[in-house]
Amino acid sequence: MTQAIAINNNHKLDLKPLAMPERLLLGPGPSNAHPAVLTAMNTSPVGHLDPTFLTLMDEIQSLLRYVWQTSNSLTIAVSGTGTAAMEASIANVVEAGDVVLIGVMGYFGNRLVDMAGRYGADVRVITTPWGQVFSLDQLKEALETHRPRILALVHAETSTGARQPMEGVAELCEKYNTLLLIDTVTSLGGVPIFLDEWGVDLAYSCSQKGLGCPPGASPFTMSSRAMEKLQNRPTKVENWYLDMNLLGKYWGSERVYHHTAPINMYYALRESLRLIAEEGIENCWQRHQQNVEYLWESLESIGLKMHVEKQYRLPTLTTVCIPEGIDGKAFARKLLDEYNLEIGGGLGELAGKVWRVGLMGYNSRPEVVDNFVDVLKKVL
Ligand SMILES: *Cc1c(COP(=O)(O)O)cnc(C)c1O
Q1: Hey, which of 25, 78, 79, 83 would you mutate to test ligand 1's pocket, going by the most ligand atoms within 8 Å of its Cβ?
Q2: What are 178-193's pLDDT values in tens digits?
């Protein structure tokens, strides 16, 4: 059924009902949503203050505490993508002039630098080559030098495929009275995280990577220490939409209207978290690890090399070195056009050097690995 629809007087668009291709999304995100999550989304919205919806919000909070292994009372979903939750972390605790130390080991560390600067932070940066991580000694030395109010690290750097070890970091932060903020956008659901055990004060994530949900509702949590800093601010949070003083009243017992929640996104998030709870978070981590090891072996068996040293590789995202003489971009385009299969290219220092292959959430399955490696064998 084709119908030419006139818009803006003289402009005509040939609009058909929506028909998008079925892609296998093995890039850095979004990943394919679990079918049950899509079914949950396809449910009529209720009102955002409907008692059944408020119950669903409570369930999201409990489930997020479970997948993150935290008891933080302020644990919610931000209406927006991971970047909105990232901005919420910065906006609520950074006050003008605060020294914020940021570990930059790739693209997303740089995004934190830009954001913290916009909120008036006195930003200090430490860096690693892309694909490497910080040692405890490096972090200790930097904390000693800069004495920051906040240390921000990217737990899973999606631009490089490296996982920053978190053991021992909180003990260092405690010594310098530093709040610890971590980006878990590409780790939540797929990589073991123990927020409370690790002494993390602020963390955020997204829905479309390890949780197997479409993008649009993003987990956020803050500890009572971070809450205290927020409550002692002499100035208002500069970002109204992401102000946790206000959002906490909608998610907490007061249920005060703040914004209209993206109802169906919350249905999706709730369903994706329920599926993880049903599987068991430890089993979910183990599944990601097993399938990625199978991917690495399969890729090595056809002569490909990984960019990151094995012990620091992420189970959710692998950077694969592009073999000599292959145009990485054209190759990825061919996979998309001819096999409906998406992988990512390199960013920044790794542009043109690696492909980024995600096995996240619902896509972390052995048959997906087989399918991908078969296609690679054909095309390479
Ligand atoms: C994807 C990603 C983000 C941004 O999330 P969006 O949902 O794209 O806004 C932030 N940090 C990391 C590490 C990511 O991988």
Answers
A1: 83
A2: 999 999 999 999 999 9
Q: Is the shortest distance between the CB of 85 and ligand 1 below 6 Å?
A: no
List the end-to-end C-alpha distance of the chain, in Å, as a whole number: 40
Q: Residue 307 above 60 pLDDT?
A: yes
How many C-beta atoms lie closer than 10 Å to residue 379's C-beta?
A: 13
**Confidence at residue 14, expressed as pLDDT on a 0 to 100 scale:** 81
Q: Which CATH number fits domain 35-277: 3.40.50.2300, 3.40.50.920, 3.40.640.10, 1.10.3730.10?
A: 3.40.640.10
CATH 3.90.1150.10 maps onto the chain at: 24-31+281-379
CA 295 to chain centre: 21
Q: Is 80 helix (H, G, I), strand (E, B) or coil?
A: coil
Average pLDDT over residues 75-93: 98
3-class SS letters over 195-245: CCCCCCCEEECCCCCCCCCCCCEEEEEECHHHHHHHHCCCCCCCCCCCCHH
114-169 pLDDT tens trace: 999 999 999 999 999 999 999 999 999 999 999 999 999 999 999 999 999 999 99
Q: How much is the average pLDDT of 216-242?
A: 98
**289 Cα to the center of ligand 1, angstroms:** 21
Residue 214 Cβ inside 6 Å of ligand 1? The answer reads: no
The CATH code of domain 24-31+281-379 reads 3.90.1150.10
Ranges of H-type helices in the chain: 35-41, 51-68, 82-93, 107-118, 136-146, 169-175, 224-231, 244-251, 263-279, 281-301, 328-339, 366-379
Asked if pLDDT for residue 112 goes beyond 80, the answer is: yes
